[in-house]
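note to self — DONT lose this again. spent like an hour looking for the file last time. sequence + predicted structure for the chain T wanted, 446 res
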Amino acid sequence: MLVITPHPDTFITEFFTLLKDSVRAWITTHKESMVMGDVNVSGSLESYVNYSNYSLRDEYCRRRSEGERAETVIASLITLPPPTDTDVISQNLLPFTSDARSWTEALSPLRGKEVFYANFERMAHSLILWIRSNSQSAVIISENEIDYQRIGLPPDMTAVRFHDLRMRLYRNDFIEKYFPVFYSFCNTVKLMDSIIEPPRFSCICGCQVIGKIWAEICTARGGDTVCYQQGWPAFMHAGFRQLPYSHFLTWGEAFSVLLGEASPLTGFHAIGRLEPVDSQGSHDAITFFMQAPVFVSSEEYHARFLKLVEATAQRYPSRRIIVRPHPEYDDTARTSAAAATHRNITVDTAPLTANTYRMTYIAVSMFSSCLVESAAFGCVPLMFNPTSGFEYPLLPEELKTRDEESFFDRLDDIMQHPGGRCATGHIQYSGKECLARFAASIQSII
């Protein structure tokens, strides 16, 4: 019998698929045990369990490369415990700790205000435009340090740093025993929500665990939940499936369709991109948008992409080459070394991408949604994706390359025929038009 050995690249696809399916089956079987107080948190727990096991990807791929069966490897790596008959799940409040009482005193003045959640500064920066469009007092919450003065926090906004209080507000022995961090997150969010009682919880991107927890809690209480699109994943991993938000506001109809396939219970609305989009600018640089070596990328692919940057700088010594590091992955040493070696390479770390796009003629990336965004700014997006199984369906096929040879063939062709621009049409509205559309529709859809 002929045995076909999968290419190692496909092991990454295989791992994420098997992990997602295993966790989904486990969640479905034990969903009734995943309750915190009066809230079923199975959706956010599913994301948490998936994310917690992503670090096993390389071990899975190594063992598969050595010939082990997929089912054997995934079963040995992923252990998902079942609840026991002795686990106690109670809706009764446990006694408040002193920390809980102090947070109650501190947050009580914010009762009734809308809550916005952003886990990183770039997301908070994007949310500011959305917050301003509402023209109301609200609360913005993040568990990470954010320089709100730098991003222009409106004066009537209150910024709150999320601190895990590691408290026991509701009892669930099963979750507390096996997922103590998630258990603590749920209790802390439940406490904050019960104090503020926001009529609406809003976030950006939507795949973060804390945002999902708060959405589940707010929905159970009868509040509205809204998420605004921040990017577009290279593959529909567990974080973007079964989204718990009542409404998801997207950049355009194409995104609504693609995201909606994985979250049929969420209402998707094509509002547009809040940050202004225009095609003005010099558009003279070749810009490389780096990706963190996680999910479908790796240290091997990351290093290969950096070599591609340097090879491009050598091939076009008179052309400005911009390297834009991923904002959540610090690779200063390697990108700075590349810039020091080649005089035409500069590193761009601006908080937002709009000015970068205006300087860019050709935007190069492996998996970033900037490939679609850049087209809206009048750039030519060019994918360099040496992996298998992951790509952006909204990008034209002729702008996708799989290896260095095909990349430079396509790059040379674009450079020899200057003036061409790409417009995918997937981002339907932007800037003031988007804000006007958002303001006119937000009350009717929510």
